[in-house]
Amino acid sequence: MRDYVGCFVVDGQGGRGLRNNPCFAPGYINYLPINGAVIAPQFGDAVADKYSKDLLTRLCSGRAIV
Questions:
Q1: pLDDT digits over 6-39, tens only?
Q2: Which of 7, 42, 43, 48 is 20 to 30 Å from 13 at the Cα level?
Q3: Residue 13 Cα to chain centre, angstroms
Q4: How far apart, in whole angstroms, are the C-alpha atoms of residue 6 and residue 51?
């Protein structure tokens, strides 16, 4: 399946095709605050993932970042 710009649509099964897909734009904005926690994405970039988790930890004190 392709979207309107000709990039493959990822079906969410293990992130296939994300790393080599020029249309993939990882973003940490899609975190989800829930009772007592924040569900946050990770993209396999250790430095960026840690920065995002540390920032959310500071901003959402008292919640586990998962």
A1: 454 445 555 555 556 666 667 888 899 999 999 9
A2: 48
A3: 14
A4: 32
**Residue with the larger pLDDT of the pair 59 and 26:** 59
> What is the C-alpha to C-alpha distance for residues 11 and 21, in angstroms, rounded to an integer?
13
Rounded CA-CA distance 20/59 in Å is 32
Report the DSSP pairing between strands 64-65 and 37-39. parallel
E strands, 1-66, in order: 32-34, 37-39, 64-65
Question: 25: helix, coil or strand?
Answer: coil
Distance CA(31)–CA(45), nearest Å, equals 16
| Structure confidence at residue 2 (pLDDT) | 41
Q: Hey, is 2 helix, strand or coil?
A: strand
